[in-house]
Write a structure and sequence with these properties.
single chain, mainly alpha, elongated
Length: 117
């Protein structure tokens, strides 16, 4: 517990050396801070939704999540779960990127939508 408190303190005070060590992309997280690969992959997709990430990042994160055992249903669940926190604009923006990353022909699906009367 003491180690986690120290880690949070260092992040909270913006300790540059600690931040570099903890947040370097591609490096394993410090002991005690790692998520299971499946959960970490879902978190990455959620963050991309919140940040309105680019399509290429959705492709990478979705492929990684699927490789770690996530299902398309879980990935859509992340999108829906993020909705109340990030707002509809982020969800609407992310939905086609996620759909394409999952291999859906979203453009074809959108063309077949009947206009509301």
């Amino acid at each position: 517990m003491r180690e986690l408190e120290d880690r949070l303190r260092r992040l909270a005070i913006n300790d540059a050396q600690s931040i570099d060590a903890m947040l370097t992309p591609g490096e394993p997280p410090p002991k005690g801070c790692d998520l299971e690969p499946h959960a970490a992959a879902l978190v990455r997709v959620g963050v991309l939704i919140a940040l309105d990430g680019p399509a290429a990042s959705f492709e990478w994160a979705t492929a990684t999540a699927l490789a770690e055992g996530a299902t398309p249903e879980e990935l859509v669940g992340v999108l829906v779960t993020a909705g109340p926190l990030v707002g509809s604009a982020h969800v609407v923006s992310a939905a086609p990127r996620l759909a394409r990353a999952l291999g859906y022909d979203i453009d074809d699906a959108l063309e077949r939508i009947e206009p509301a009367v």
